[in-house]
Model the fold of this input.
Amino acid sequence: MSEDRPQLYLLTPPSFDLEVFPQLLARVLGAQEVACIRLGLATKDEDKVMRAADAVRQIAHEFDVALVIENHIALVERHGLDGVHLTDGARTVRYARKELGTEAIVGSFCGASQHDGMSAGEAGADYICFGPVGETGLGTGTRADRDLFQWWSEVIEVPVVAEGALTEALVRDFAPVTDFFAVGEEIWTTEDPVAALGRLVAAMG
Done:
């Protein structure tokens, strides 16, 4: 992987079958170099989340890939995870850092808000996610535009992640201005996630 090419940040599907998904994840990790995985489940069932965390951690760590969990700060140490991904901008960053210590990864999703991104970075976030960069009817529909990433990559040292409704064209366009691409549903909803991810990686140039 070229040094100046963005790295891959893999998002799990919001729900998955523990009998099937770990093997599929292993195939994807075997095919492409991935820097980090985010476990982001839609369920609030603690048992399901904990079992998924253990299953995904096992595969992630086999491939020497960091695993962060969405929002569940209390599960990070208990399940041997590498950190947490917060979805509330800068609000919980300081608390998470205090709870998890300096070694843990603390990431923050900041929508399309430059202000939230800067606040989260100042509070100690290791990376900032902006998105969606693509067209989606979900959320507020506000897209994080290329100018935000361009400005961020020129001015701020905290790594930035582009996510949300990615296409090959968007990956090609954003590759020069982002450190990571967060890829999830873009590949898991296809017939062949390994091939779909390969196409997105090829688009990075």
User: Anything to note?
Assistant: The domain at 7-204 is CATH 3.20.20.70 (TIM Barrel). The chain has nine helices and eight strands. The chain has a mean pLDDT of 96.
